[in-house]
Amino acid sequence: MKIKKGDTVEVISGDDKGLRGTVHRVIPGRRVLRRRAQKGTRSPGSDHSRDRVVVSGINLVKKHQRPTGDVRTQVGIIEREAPIHMSNVALVCPHCQQRTRVGYQVLENGEKIRVCKRCAQTVD
Ligand SMILES: [Zn+2]
What residues does the ion ligand 1 have nearby, CB within 5 Å? Predict the structure, then answer.
């Protein structure tokens, strides 16, 4: 996964193009394998073409919230973030503050870390 929770990202397409925000949540795409899932023989594989992220202040949608009987529920039209496709955002490097592509570097202990393709600094 190239983008993780807590990363700063920039939107590179759509209505919010150019805006930046912090990743709240990463929603990994799951391949739909109905037959196998029913039998329980294998868990569905990941499908990175379906990966999405929720970013603070990005892709706001108006939601009409009806009273639920719970006084803590905010009622009326509320704005909330909808998930945006992973391919529509780019990681913003914490070192050079530019949006960048992500490379990987494998440490001696076998750990894989992300590096900025622009300034070659580690991102993690
Ligand atoms: Zn950088």
Answer: 93, 95-96, 116, 118-119
